[in-house]
Fold:
Amino acid sequence: MIISGLLTLLYNVLSLLLVFELPSLPDSVTTVGAELTNYVKEGISILAAFVGSTAMGVIALLLGLVLALNAAYLLYSLVFWVIRKIPVLNVRE
Structure:
């Protein structure tokens, strides 16, 4: 579900930014995406059976936090990499 949502979001952003029309995905890619989504859903339901629904909510929250912190770190690294490339600022590690 997350993967298909991200691919749909990426497809929508690209279709807005690009002037030409993107082709539709082949049926084989759509089928593989649906099967992968079903596998992820089944895995989550098996994990929820072991740990409970409350713990799954906490796990989802912590996973989102980890992803957000990693994205913030990558953005921070990118910004400082660009700043270090400007010789006038004389920024070092």
